[in-house]
Amino acid sequence: MSFIKNYIEHQTLNRRNLLLLSAWGLCGAAASSSLIGRQAAAATSPDPKICWSYRDRTNPFWNSIVAGGEAFVRSLGRQSGDLINLINGGSSEKSLSDIQSLLSRYGSGVALAVDPNDMPNCRPVVEAVSHAGAYVSTIWNKTDDLHPWDFGDNYVSHMTWSDVGPSEQTARVLFDAMGGKGGVVHLGGIASNNPAIERQQGFKNALKAYPNIQLLAIQAADWDTQKANQVMSGFLTRYGDAIKGVHCASDTMAYGVIEALRAEGIENMPVVSYDGNPQAIEMIAKGKLLATVFTNAYWAGGITASLAYYAATGAFKPSAEPREHREFYGPTAVITTKDAQEFKTKYIDTNPEYNWKDFWSLAKGPIRYKS
Amino acid sequence: MTQRLTMENLRKWVPLFVLIGLVLFFTAVNPNFLSLRNFARIAISSSPALMVATGVTFVILMGSIDLSMEGTIAVCAVLFALMLNALGGSLSGAGWLAIPGALLIGAVLGAVNGLIHVKLKIPSFMASLSLGFVGIGLSLLITGGDRILIEDPIFRSLLTVRVGGFPLMAWAALACLLIAWFIQDDTTVGRNFYAVGGGEDLARASGLNTGRLRVTGFIVAGIFYALGAIFAVARLGIAETETGQNFMFVSITSVVVGGTSLSGGSGGVWNTLVGVLIVNVIGNGMVVVGLPDYFQDGVLGLLVIAAVYLSTDRRSLFFVK
User: Fold this and answer.
1) What's residue A29's pLDDT?
2) What PANTHER family does the entry give (chain B) (predicted)?
3) Residue A211 backbone dihedrals phi, psi, to 5 degrees
4) Which residues of B touch A62 (CB under 8 A)?
5) CA dist A312 to A44, A101, A356, A362, Å?
6) Is residue B247 in a domain?
């Protein structure tokens, strides 16, 4: 049970530091971090609180995001535990109310990185932050009519990923492995999620180029390993040997699919997935999985927090940056059996040391809107 | 009188008729449904759910409810995997100790649940729901959000080795069900569950220590959740906080659909078996017949209402709360 002991020790230390800091602040140093929050109109803050707001940590993608956020915090000479985690558990209401509480506690001394959980929630979050004079960077969910440049400096940046292209690439890898013919099934994410829609679109685009590939079924398995497992066993009953390949919209669902196949003694069915989790890369290296797409959530988690932080400290002025530095696509890389081993040593076994001040080094160009 | 008796007798069997009806329906739409291989698939998806639903059956028989299963499963699954890997990673070595270890953890969590409910006099609904969240948080704290993989081929043989067309996991679950049947029918504790569920005042007046019995019920449930956790890990080879996901809905639904009354005192583990099979046959069947996925959740809900309607005798209920 040493982890509990460590946790308690860590928390006690934090508490001690907080008490010391507060005492120091009360003794007259006006620049103490806890007092800065009261000056609502302060333009920048030398030592803002860094916070990540996201769904939950059980999902490997979000786990990597937070790991990146913590790495950035450590790069400032602070401890991982100094990153404030706001976990919304998939509720937009909780996401917003937690952020409001944070703002009323620390005021403008906040650098916030956030996935607002769904698109409509982005506006109230951004408005609350900018009203408080704090700084926010968002990822994934934002409506098309909302732009960072409409909020001066306070809405620093938005990053999302374009999944259509990479998903089409993995589908092509899959179809080639199937020899260009035979039946294929697609397991998608929660039907209303933007990445689920885009990944399915990429799959369909690839289908057009392969006339002898027969689309058997598309079914949502909600990003969930157990549900994907059950859906795949249902598919096996319905189509039996007609299934020659499986296209999954996420790694987590691919794990369930592969176990459903394993239960039937099927070991060599081509399966492709998306997200590039360490476990998936491992499976590609072992030949159990054909391809996945690495979205570098670790870098995304660090750089999103970094953008908000350095804007808050005044190290750079967001409104002076071009628009492609304020709305941009995150990195994507298709990983196949050829490069899995090399990729694993480079990105999975150790996380590369990123320069968190090099904000746009991995960005993939400005966001294009369908109009 | 005779007619009434036959109606009552019939009603007891309604869940089974519903199950057979569903099988016939799905077979009519897609003949592939009725095959040993598909039944094996249904058995795999049912095994963990059967253990969890059996556990909660005992609690429901007492007229209480337990909603802590998702947290308990998450903690048991994660600690089971950690213990197994720490003890050499294989059941053939010292790793087998992880199984009694996990069951013990399930029992402890169940005991905490029961004691909070009984000693602090907090309704079981609220006590168990809250403890479920505590469990989820605890497992997250242990894993830090990571997944623990189990590669041991002996442990995974629960899924990969088949006897008579069904994986070992299904047979193991059946054996556990027989034990549950024994507890229910042939032990004093089991009979007392019915006594408390049928009328707690009477049971107490006849000298039964109902508080202790309730705690026992939650402990038994916790042990079965741990079994469910072990099967769930065996099915995917992954232990994580999400291992417990969705078990609350599936297990409570199965118990009710199987004909065990939520007010306590009637039903039992065989009803639960039928209920679990109904829910999993519906889940499998809807994919097999190719129902569009946006219909599936809605249809599942309607089928559950229909099954409960058919299997409860409404004339014996004065009011429904």
Assistant:
1) 43
2) ABC TRANSPORTER PERMEASE PROTEIN YPHD-RELATED-RELATED
3) -65, -25
4) 145
5) 5, 19, 15, 22
6) yes
Q: From the CA of A185, how many Å to the nearest CA of chain B?
A: 12
Tokens of A293: 């797409």
Residues of B in contact with A231 (CB under 8 A): 287
pLDDT for the residue numbered A18: 56
B30: contact with A, CB 8 A cutoff: yes
Does residue B7 belong to any structural domain of this protein? no
**pLDDT, tens digit, for every residue of B267-311?**
999 999 999 999 999 989 999 998 887 788 888 888 778 877 776
Report DSSP state, residue B181: H
The CATH number of whichever domain residue A117 belongs to comes to: 3.40.50.2300
Nearest Cα of chain A lies from the Cα of B288 at a distance, in angstroms, of: 5
In a domain, B225, yes or no: yes
Residue range of the domain that includes A260: 164-294
Q: Which of A238, A268, A294 is the last residue of a domain?
A: A294
Could you tell me if A53 and A129 lie in one domain? yes
In a domain, residue B6? The reply is no
Residue A233 domain-assigned (yes or no)? yes
Q: Would residue A69 count as lying in a domain?
A: yes
Per CB-CB distance under 8 Å, the chain A contacts of B241 are 58
Contact across the interface for B293 and A66, Cβ inside 8 Å? no
List the single residue in A58, A235, A263 with the smallest CB-CB distance to B159.
A263
| Whether residues A247 and A131 fall in one domain | no
pLDDT at A28 over 60: no
**Helix-strand-coil split of chain B, %, nearest 5:** 80, 0, 20
As for how many domains chain A has, the answer is 2
Torsion, Cα of A203, A204, A210, A216 (10° steps): 90
pLDDT confidence band for B316 (50 / 70 / 90)? low
The sign of the CA dihedral B95, B97, B101, B103 is positive
* C-alpha distances out from residue A20 to A7, A15, A23, A142, Å: 20, 9, 5, 40
Does A64 contact B at CB distance below 8 Å? no
CATH code of the domain in which B283 resides: 1.10.3470
Among B41, B236, B293, beta carbon nearest to A225: B236
* C-alpha closest to that of A269 among A236, A295, A292: A236
Whether B147 and A62 lie within 8 Å, measured CB to CB: no
CB contact under 8 A, A7 and B284: no
Which of B145, B167, B245 is closest, CB to CB, to A224? B245
Check CB contact under 8 Å for A233 and B145.
Answer: no
Residue A59: pLDDT band by 50, 70, 90 thresholds?
confident
Count of domains observed in chain B: 1
The answer to the question of residue A359 being in a domain is: no
- Residue B77: domain span: 14-311
The SS3 assignment for A40 reads coil
Q: For A216-266, what is each residue's pLDDT tens digit?
A: 999 999 889 999 999 999 999 999 999 999 999 999 999 999 999 999 999
Share of chain B above pLDDT 90, in %: 74
Same domain? For A149 and A176 the reply is: no
Tokens 């699954």 correspond to B77
Residues A168 and A290 in one domain: yes
**Interface predicted TM-score (ipTM):** 0.87
- For residue A315, tell me if it sits in a domain: yes
